[in-house]
Write a structure and sequence with these properties.
Layout (H helix, E strand, L loop, with lengths): L8 H20 L4 H8 L1 E5 L17 H10 L3 E6 L32 H16 L3 E6 L2 H6 L17 H20 L7 E4 L10 H17 L9 E3 L6 H4 L5 H4 L5 E7 L3 H4 L14 H19 L6 E7 L7 E2 L4 E2 L1 E2 L9 E2 L6 H16 L4 E6 L47 H8 L24 E4 L10 E5 L12 E5 L8 E5 L2 E2 L7 E11 L4 E10 L3 E5 L3 E3 L8 E6 L6 E8 L4 E14 L2 H6 L1 E4 L6 E6 L3 E8 L4 E6 L4 E3 L6 E9 L4 E8 L1
Parallel strand pairs: 1-2, 1-12, 2-3, 3-4, 4-5, 5-6, 6-7, 7-12
Antiparallel strand pairs: 8-9, 10-11, 13-16, 14-15, 15-24, 16-23, 17-23, 18-22, 18-24, 19-20, 19-21, 19-23, 25-26, 26-29, 27-28, 27-30, 30-31
Length: 684
């Protein structure tokens, strides 16, 4: 093997890569479209890079490290949009007539794709294939739209009549490009997929799109090599989003055994594009929202399943704007252009909340995979309005969304976040796409302690004994200015006064698997009120022969978060089967804010307590006595099966057990600081 500084090294390396690609092509050429779609699984789109007028115009240039990052994260496919129109292919069609009945034969050889662009494309594709990724080569881009797709739409100024010479020339150029793509990549493995065209929706009719699909399929098959079984991604015309796929003609589907059908999904636009002033829905995740996705995805699945075998399906794009309109390039609100801003250049005026953005990506990803679709989520890098991979390797400085907060979306000067992001990814979205279970700020007894996973996760509001309770108290997400840190906090609005406990904020009930035994938990929380001296309590419900409760003294809120949190400690009684933490309020009308719970634990020493308490005589016939050096508040007697027989207050030192049958029993003694001691006794 030549040394790396040898002139032969790049030649040998390139030959090695090509050999691997060719071998992989031979091994994989015969897999079915569905088998390849299953292999594709979960992926992302390298948006705004090779499809830009010039690479680097819209996002950082492609790098090998990007594909390494994607593969290491666990994704299995990358869709690469590229645009061959504009200056990347010679031969102008502008001189041809757009009028009807001027059709003519056009020589395709006059249209030549830039060799440098093909070389660059080949380099980028090889980076992905070398990481074991399935790569989708997608014909995409702004000049593709302006010079080709829009010319099919009679409402566009660039419209060309179907019988015009211009239409014939534009088609000839499009097909000439595909001839050169097919020839360049014909020996690549089956892990390279061709996608005919991006989003012809609304512009190209269903019948016109069928004709284009048929011709490109023919071109690819005629080029030979592995292209005889190359998987080709097609879509339909006329309709948008998920319905376009259903407009693909049956004759196209039945004409070839190696097709994959694709659709895109950005519905509802009011949510997915909500950083744009034209859209204002920043929340997603209701049952209605999810049912709409399921219904639309099932429409696609039902269409695919009518064929034998069913058509393999690829969700080629989906996604939602960055949370709150945040920009990872600046650490501030995403800057928008005059076209998207009511007052000229300015900043995003909203955007999805963190939880909704996560839920949207997670739900769509799982909705696709559960129906045997593969997917590629749209990702345009750190500079864009939809970010997943942050592409630091292209020189971008990235900031931490967790500390970003905005309550007003008026255009403002950029103020960079103070905490630098250490991740290569928008981590929650990456995990959502990969099907990784969401990790909230959890302890073993308290879940979602900072509310950043959303109020609906692990928390609920109870208003016992209050008719029409929603009119009396509500739980909402506080604005970020009312959060101690992050962007979420609990906001409880009480509209009708009652006793403390008439409004209860409850965490999830946690079952004791044995790990709570002999533990003391110290709970802390920060809180403030809309006015001075609002009262609340901290309380634990524990299950021990029924529901039991122990709570703090009344605590008083001020109008700002304190320097130190409010605290409460709880010693877990022996035999406890479950624990639930609660906050009690409702005595005072007003608004209560709570954020940033924390929990610490320590193991209690039962040995020391046992040394301070003695029961005698043992065995016992009639009278049992308790000798103690600590203050006892209660005692209970249990049989050998754990059934409670008797309970006493802690003032007694003498207990009559004459009524008991002979056998083994247990007496549980509770001290004033909630420590528990259990003694076994024998009755004779």
């Amino acid at each position: 093997m030549p040394k790396k500084n040898s002139i032969l090294y790049p030649l040998v390396t390139n030959f090695k890569n090509l050999l691997l690609i060719l071998v992989a092509g031979f091994l994989n050429a015969q897999q079915t479209p569905q088998a390849l779609v299953t292999k594709m699984g979960r992926g992302i789109t390298l948006g705004n890079v090779l499809s830009a007028p010039s690479e680097g115009n819209w996002a950082g240039a492609a790098t090998e490290q990007y594909f390494i990052d994607v593969a290491n994260a666990g994704f299995t496919n990358v869709r690469i949009p590229m645009d061959f129109f504009g200056t990347r292919t010679t031969g102008s069609t502008s001189s041809f007539s757009s009028s009807a009945n001027t059709n003519t034969t056009v020589d395709r050889s006059q249209f030549q794709v830039s060799a440098a662009y093909l070389d660059r494309l080949e380099q980028v594709i090889a980076w992905g294939l070398n990481q074991g990724l399935v790569i989708v080569l997608d014909f995409h881009g702004a000049t593709l739209k302006s010079e080709f797709i829009y010319t099919f739409n009679s409402s566009e100024s660039s419209y060309t009549h179907p019988t015009s010479a211009k239409r014939a020339a534009d088609l000839a150029k499009f097909y000439a490009i595909w001839e050169q793509i097919a020839d360049r990549f014909k020996n690549y493995s089956d892990n390279l997929i061709f996608e005919v065209i991006n989003e012809p929706y609304f512009h190209i009719s269903a019948s016109e799109m069928d004709e284009i699909n048929a011709e490109v399929i023919s071109i690819v098959r005629a080029s030979g090599g592995n292209n005889s079984t190359r998987k080709i991604v097609i879509t339909g015309g006329s309709q948008n989003s998920f319905r376009a796929i259903t407009s693909i003609g049956n004759q196209i589907i039945n004409s070839d055994n190696y097709l994959i059908a694709t659709f895109h999904y950005y519905l509802p636009f009011s949510f997915t594009k909500s950083s744009d002033h034209r859209y204002d829905d920043n929340n997603w995740g209701t049952n209605q929202d999810k049912n709409e996705v399921d219904a639309n995805f099932q429409t696609v699945a039902d269409w695919a399943n009518q064929f034998s075998p069913p058509v393999a399906v690829y969700l080629g794009e989906f996604g939602a704007d960055n949370a709150y309109g945040y920009s990872y390039q600046t650490g501030d609100l995403h800057k928008v252009t005059a076209n998207n801003s009511p007052n000229g250049n300015g900043y995003a005026d909203g955007g999805p909340d963190l939880n909704s953005r996560y839920e949207y990506h997670a739900y769509l990803a799982n909705a696709a995979i559960s129906r045997d679709f593969s997917f590629s989520a749209w990702d345009a890098g750190g500079e864009a309005s939809k970010s997943i991979h942050l592409r630091k390797d292209s020189g971008l400085t990235v900031y931490d969304i967790d500390y970003f907060c905005v309550d007003s979306y008026d255009p403002k000067s950029t103020t960079i976040s103070t905490v630098i992001e250490t991740s290569l990814w928008v981590d929650d979205i990456k995990d959502a796409l990969l099907g990784v279970e969401r990790t909230c700020n959890d302890s073993d007894v308290l879940k979602n302690m900072d509310f950043e996973c959303g109020l609906d996760n692990n928390w609920s509001l109870l208003t016992p004994n209050i008719p029409n309770s929603n009119d009396k108290a509500v739980l909402e997400d506080a604005t970020c200015s009312n959060s101690l840190s992050g962007v979420s906090a609990a906001k409880i609005s009480v509209f009708q006064s009652g006793a403390i406990g008439s409004t209860i904020l409850r965490n999830e009930e946690i079952t004791n698997d044995g790990s709570f035994n002999n533990k003391r938990y110290s709970f802390s929380v920060y809180g403030k009120g809309s006015s001075q001296n609002l009262k609340f309590k901290m309380r634990v419900k524990y299950i021990l022969n029924g529901n039991q409760f122990t709570g703090s003294q009344d605590k008083t809120l001020q109008t700002s978060y304190p320097q130190a949190p409010y605290t409460f400690s709880f010693d877990v009684p022996d035999g406890t089967t479950a624990i639930q933490f609660q906050l009690l309020c409702g005595q005072d009308i007003g608004t209560y804010y709570f954020d940033n719970f924390s929990v610490t634990q320590e193991t209690l020493s039962k040995k020391d307590l046992s040394q301070n308490i003695n029961v005698y005589p043992n065995p016992v016939s009639n009278k049992l006595y308790i000798q103690k050096d600590v203050s006892v508040v209660a005692a209970s007697l249990y049989d050998i099966n754990g059934k409670k027989i008797e309970s006493w207050d802690g003032q007694k030192n003498e207990y009559d057990l004459s009524f008991l049958k002979n056998g083994i029993y247990f007496i549980e003694i509770i001290t004033e600081n909630n420590l528990f001691c259990t003694k076994s006794i024998i009755k004779r």
